[in-house]
Design a protein that fits this description.
Preprotein translocase SecY subunit, 2 domains, three-stranded antiparallel β-sheet, two-stranded antiparallel sheet, 19 helices, 7 strands
Length: 483
Amino acid sequence: MALEFMDKVSKFIPSIKSPKTPLSLKEKLYWTGIVLVVYFLLYNTYAIGVNQAEVTNPLFELISIIFAAKIGSLITIGIGPIVLASILLQLFNGAGLIKFDSSNLEEKSRFQSLQKLSAIVLGVIESFIFVFTGYIPISSPSAAGFVIIQLIIGAITIIFLDEIMTKWGITSGINMFIASGVSYDIIAGTFGILLPGAITAIETGGATAISGAVLAFAPLFFSVIVFLISIYAYEIKVELPLVFEQLRGIGGRLPIPFLYVSVLPVILATSLEMSLTVWFRMLANIKGAFANFAKFIAFYQPVNGQLQLNGGLVYLISPSFPLPYPAPAGIGGYRQYFTYLATHTTQLFLPFGGFVNVPEWIHIIVYTLVLVVLCIVFGKFWIEMTGQNPKSVADQLQSVGWQIPGFRRDPRIIENVLNKYIPTVTVLGSIFVGLLAAFATLTGALGTGMGILLTVGIIYMLYQQLEQEHLYEAYPILEKIAK
């Protein structure tokens, strides 16, 4: 399907204009600050009609971090519609259902307009889902309509804040919102949960006072470990020597980092998993002939007056646990938490066999394996869609005159050399981020595994971008050469 129809539709979609002249680094930081102030105002403002006292589901923390949202606030939907719209359209493009040439500016503009329209539509749909499925506890049924309107406005606002940040700020809004949300969660968790827990352990006294205080900070300890491992992984890379054909003596290196596609695989994989838990919530109250099938897909049970995912295929691939409190702190510590995971069972409903008990450790294995497989799939998919595959990189090197010393100046030769590195690094890097994210999530690290990985990756990319911007300001000629 061609995208020419978007020429008429895009006229009715508001758009943020790009700056007429390139912005300085100071101006970009200024706009970034403004967007973040607006974001945190929305983040800390609950929608009128939401029952704040009942927004306690531990799954909300993970959803909030992944979608850069806060359940019950004006930005309850967060960046979910933006990410989901991007995934769906990329899949449609890969399957040939829609066709566009990313090198054509006109077609690229149509695709971006379609992506924005899709995100707005998904934001509206998810606003209804969050309210009518009970995901957001509201004070009274009569307030449902007003809450939905507020969530829709918040979702659309986030879409345009992301566009402002992308065009006027120092990075994309999605990146900045996720990093800001995770940082806020770690600081709030340290001073709001861990510090009081450590003080209580010391005040209690006894032989276990010191060990109890140390264990209270275990989630922060695991967060630091994941941060350090992530930073180390970002520094691992393979460098291929390059020479410039037209100027002898001029050479360089092509870095192929271990995390070649950064944390994008885990963003897409986790967003897909969490979106399924939200969307399939609609099956919770289904009746009739499809009731058994609905339970097999996603089995929900009421916990403290709220529906909670407690079984089914969606549960097995999700990082959620049927705990009515944050783990591991809420269950009494890591010993009780890991004992729970080793001994607890959940129910999987088979359409023709009734309920069967599934040990929680099987859930952990299935979740980890599915996350890793999804990371590999999305990692390979992403390098194909974004022009980072060996063939595209070889063509880019060929077009600017670079070649690998010792080989003929032929893009097919360069492609063969790159084929020895890029596919392998993509798979290994995707496996690594999937396992590290699962480890951090399962150990209760502050900010969750995905959140920490995303934040480290975003900060690393932001540092590189700021360094580049500073270099371009000091030596303007370099920017002209790069273009």
